[in-house]
Amino acid sequence: MTTLAAKIAEIETEMARTQKNKATEGHLGLLKAKMAKLKRELIEGSGKSGGGGEGFDVSKTGDARVGLIGFPSVGKSTLLTKLTGQFSEAADYEFTTLTCIPGVYKYKGSKIQLLDLPGIIEGAKDGKGRGKQVIGVARTCSLILIVLDAMKPLTHKRIIERELEGFGIRLNKRPPDIIIKRKDKGGLNIMKSQSLEMTKMSDDTIKSIAHEYRISNADIYFKSNASADDLIDVIEGNRVYTPCIYVINKIDQISIEELELLDKVPHYVPVSAKDEWNFDELMEKIWDYLDLIRIYTKPKGQIPDYEAPVIVPRGHSTIEGFCNRLHKALVKEMKYAMVWGTSVKHNPQKVGKDHQLNDEDVVQIIKKL
Predict the structure, then answer these.
(1) Residue ranges of the OBG-type G domain (predicted)?
(2) Residue 283's domain is classified under what CATH number?
């Protein structure tokens, strides 16, 4: 473990020493690839149980899982207690929470599972503190809330982002538009979309990274101006792309002028967990970032059930996806569906399993006889 961490530290030192220019671009790309491989070994070597450990094996419940991450004593425990009613010990001293505390709150008919993860510290990705288990659980979340103290420097934000990135969690990013097709022979072919200019990485850098991963026969197709980090992420193939909201807590202790400065932080919500200030905006933003939709069911001959919507991720909001949320066998029994709502031109309209549903549509499934 120490050896891997030491090797990573050596590469980081060499990268910091190396000047960034065209001549060193390939060398830096190679160093990044070596570091990514060492970090993978570090994670896999210690975390084969999948981010578990005493108090960390929390079963998923509800429609989505949201993780609270932050430095000690920023107010995560208070936030969890106020939102869910689940008691998570809060105190003025650091490291109060030593295990993963789950709680659930209801919003727009959905059940959102909140996890209060122990205070993250710098160096978590290298195995310090309980950072490994924290980030292991964070990888299973649909959304991450990074909780920051309005009274503390915003450098804490960057430290936490760096820790999460070190564990392959990409915040508020999309997977890079790179396709790698491995072949038995033919060498390495680098292809780019028409009129695409690659300014972040040369062909030599691409080749040196591929060589480090022993990719000698492949077509690598770039659809966007990707960086060396993007290419490494695609080759590694174990990155998770997670939306993130920065919850800036304790705004009751700062001035209006300071609050206006914080407005420049993207993806942020200011709150006072202690006083329950601005919880409505926080819950609405969580809902938006989770990108969930509500589908109401309508049994034959009855009015729709508006009390218990079926919650579906927008990315899986076809009739088939809706059926799978109810029962895996339902789509096979379905003849067609009747839909009322904004996703159809006529109300009701007969649709098939590939029809894309919108938020608050009403669906009636007609089964085969």
Answers:
(1) 64-291
(2) 3.40.50.300
